[in-house]
Write a structure and sequence with these properties.
CATH architecture of one domain: Beta Barrel
Number of helices: 25
Mean pLDDT: 94
Number of strands: 28
CATH topology of one domain: Barwin-like endoglucanases
Oligomer: single chain
Length: 754
């Protein structure tokens, strides 16, 4: 059985100094003269998009830090955020449009003007639309403003085939939240007393406000942090107890907790009776998931489960079972996440301080206060309904992906759809800041599929692996060089951010807004956008609210100054009502008691419509937990604190910090294969074979191997990272998790001597 490792007893770490060569010219005294100002903006070195401040001296950004107007940030910033200036001045950046002159992927290019490049893209898209229909074009981007804009562009062009990164990252969580609560939920780490963490490594997959809240929690000796992760992550190093659970077996652990609570009637009976549906079905499903049953799946002793179940119950409602951010570990992702959400529900922590809560949107608060105090935004990106079925069937009745939002789609379905030309011909793909040849499973097959397309357009900052396959590469301005629209952030209190450019573009680059506006003009639907400039777009979005716009230009971040409101917390409701005297505490509770956006109108422990479509999936149960697939080892992957999944590896400062990703391997595993530190070997399965360098550590299970994501690239025009390190994606099958369509990033492999 696995034993827990107490905080600071597993390993002792020493801090090593890292020396970086080179001159930071931004700090030379000659530059620190003349105009000196701060620009408040939003970072884009990862998807967290933290509020930042940029110090600009004589039109040159010289320093980045957190935006102090966001009290959660103060001046904090991570290594990725601090390296924005390094990306800005990177000599390897794309500087001008490029057009392919050789065979696809041959790496032969010529420079082009923007007029020529955009005219070629527009005429090619028009030709594909005439010959094969608008649905023959795919459009993909990471979620955020670029995805909203690209989705609008695709819909006005006439294609339903838009894809975000969701299916390769959070789609299981988003889907489980939708089916259970009817809306997204959030976690109040700051005020919790007890947290169970399932590999949600906030100290590497950084989100500064959340990471700081978790750091304060972990440092408080009166609180308790339990971490379940096959490897000794940085998060595990902060835990009171770490359990190296077998990869992909989180579901078994949670099902046994639920079994104990229901067996002993240790749950919030009043809350479940009043607000939930499906308790009897849940009880029936969990009869056999005892602590003894889960031992063979997780390796965790049954007595430990009994103890943890009791501790969590005693801490309720100030306890959180953290569902994480990226949920792609096994085919059981939907069931795993649903089980974790239901565990929170049974503890009665919903809308409780130190528990979980729903967004306090401007619409909700205005309705509660009965005054329009909180600004409402209107979308500047009209997205008309396209009456054509998607290639993956997302959102379509009777499809395997019927519960996947049409807007986001299933990335793993793209390669087969292109190669088979089913359900119809796919001839083109427009990608912005999206690199599926690094971030999506089986890139070998994806590369073959892309080679058969008539048109590939890539908008990016770097010549990525995917850009190497393009017909046209459109260089994007970095986030420091462009203005963008207002973004509303949901949480306990509504807040607004706005990206303000720190300088004009250094090269012949453009923003996606400029690109889309030009192409919309050429393709004949410029009327869809009631704006021409970013200033007009912002004014339209803010409905002419000049005070909001002025504040965001000056501050970059604006938050409503109201008490934090937990709808089922008496003290919280009372404080809110003291601020707004005409609101009574009963009005606050009534906001929670409104009908939920689920088919039953309640929190659904059992989902009848899921059960009808996927028999056995209406309630959490023990299915789809095998990720090893008869191989001797499970390969897992994750994000480092230095790099993102596929964008930052070439940024000079970050590359100096981390330029490779050796394979984590337990010493006993290495000994069994005659391997030593820094030896090379191969890991392989039926999908591929990848060369790796061995990194020996006791901080991982003997049956598990680990790689950081984003390496093993094929990018000849980025020589620093070309073919450096190893890619876990090249060993991942194009399978998806039932119900939610999530990519599965844990996979079975064997070790082969080099």
């Amino acid at each position: 059985m696995i034993e827990s490792y107490a905080r600071r007893r597993f390993l002792q770490f020493s801090t090593a100094a890292l020396s970086m060569q080179g001159s930071l010219r931004a700090w030379e005294p000659s530059i620190l003269k003349g105009e000196d100002k701060w620009v408040r903006s939003v970072c884009e070195m990862c998807s967290s998009r933290c509020a930042i401040e940029v110090r600009v001296v004589d039109q040159k950004p010289v320093w980045l830090q957190g935006n102090a107007f966001d009290a959660r940030m103060h001046s904090s910033i991570c290594a990725r955020g601090l390296s924005g200036v390094s990306q800005l001045y990177d000599q390897d950046r794309l500087r001008t449009p490029l057009m392919r002159v050789g065979r696809r992927g041959e790496n032969r290019w010529r420079e082009a003007s923007w007029d020529e490049a955009l005219a070629f893209v527009a005429s090619s898209m028009q030709r594909l639309k005439q010959n094969y229909g608008a649905q023959s074009m795919l459009f993909s981007s990471k979620t955020g403003e670029s995805f909203d804009l690209l989705s609008s562009f695709a819909a006005n062009y006439g294609s339903p085939n838009t894809f975000s990164h969701w299916s390769s990252c959070p789609i299981a969580i988003e889907s489980a939240l939708e089916q259970t609560f009817g809306e997204r939920a959030y976690r109040d780490f700051e005020h919790a007393d007890y947290i169970v963490n399932f590999g949600h490594n906030l100290f590497e997959g950084l989100d500064i406000p959340l990471s700081k809240a978790m750091a304060r929690f972990a440092a408080n000796p009166s609180k308790k942090l339990i971490v379940l992760d096959p490897r000794f992550s940085i998060m595990a190093g902060k835990a009171d107890e770490w359990y190296p659970i077998k990869a992909g077996q989180d579901l078994a652990f949670v099902l046994s907790l639920l079994h104990v609570w229901l067996r002993d009637a240790k749950y919030d009976h009043a809350f479940v009776r009043r607000y939930c549906i499906g308790l009897d079905a849940l009880k029936a499903s969990l009869k056999e998931t005892t602590p003894q049953w889960q031992e063979r799946y997780t390796g965790i002793d049954a007595k430990t489960i009994e103890r943890l179940a009791d501790e969590i119950y005693r801490a309720a409602p100030r306890c959180i079972l953290d569902w994480g951010h990226k949920a792609t570990t096994s085919p059981a992702e939907f069931q795993r996440t649903r089980a974790i959400l239901i565990a929170n529900v049974l503890m009665g922590n919903v809308e409780k301080k130190g528990g979980i809560y729903f967004a306090k949107t401007p619409e909700m608060l205005n309705a509660l206060i009965q005054e329009p105090l909180f600004p409402l935004l209107q979308s500047p990106y009209p997205t008309p309904e396209v009456g054509i079925a998607r290639i993956d069937g997302a959102g379509e009745e009777r499809s395997a992906y019927r519960f996947v939002p049409k807007k986001h789609g299933v990335l793993n379905a793209i390669a087969d759809a292109i190669l088979t030309q089913q359900p119809y011909a796919i001839k083109g793909w427009f990608l912005t800041r999206h690199n599926p040849l690094v971030t999506v499973a089986d890139p070998q097959k994806m590369r073959t599929a892309m080679a058969s397309l008539d048109l590939i357009v890539v908008n990016d900052i770097y010549m990525s692996d995917t850009a190497m396959m393009a017909d046209v590469v459109l260089p994007e301005s970095t986030y420091l060089e462009r203005d963008e629209s207002i973004h509303l952030h949901h949480g306990l209190v509504p807040s607004y951010t706005m990206r303000n450019r720190a300088l004009t573009p250094l090269h012949r680059t453009r923003s996606l807004h400029e690109i889309v506006r030009s192409l919309a003009d050429a393709l004949g639907f410029s009327h869809a956008y009631p704006w021409k400039t970013m200033q007009e777009l912002r004014a339209y979005q803010a409905k002419g609210n000049s005070a909001l716009l002025e504040s965001l230009v000056k501050r970059g971040y604006v938050q409503a100054t109201i008490p934090h409101l937990f709808l089922r917390e008496e003290a919280s409701a009372r404080a809110f009502c003291e601020r707004y005297a005409h609101v009574e505490p009963r009005h606050v509770l009534e906001m929670f008691e409104r009908r939920r956006k689920t088919p039953s109108g309640k929190i659904e422990l059992f989902c009848a419509h899921i059960e009808k479509a996927f028999e056995g999936y209406g309630v959490p149960c023990a299915v789809d937990m095998d990720v090893q697939q008869n191989y001797p080892y499970t390969l897992i992957s994750g994000k480092s604190a230095i790099h993102t999944n596929g964008h930052t590896q070439n940024v000079p400062y970050l590359h100096a910090l981390m330029s490779d990703n050796p394979l984590w391997m337990h010493p006993s595993t290495a000994k069994a294969h005659g391997l030593r530190q820094n030896d090379t070997c191969y890991i392989e399965n039926e999908i591929g074979k990848e060369k790796v360098k061995v990194f020996l550590t006791e901080g991982i299970r003997p049956d598990t191997l680990f790689l950081y994501m984003g390496f093993g690239r094929q990018t000849p025009l980025l020589p620093k990272i070309d073919r450096k390190g190893s890619s876990a994606s090249k060993l991942l099958p194009l399978k998806t998790a039932p119900v939610c369509g999530a990519m599965i990033t844990n996979t079975g492999v064997r070790i082969v001597r080099a």
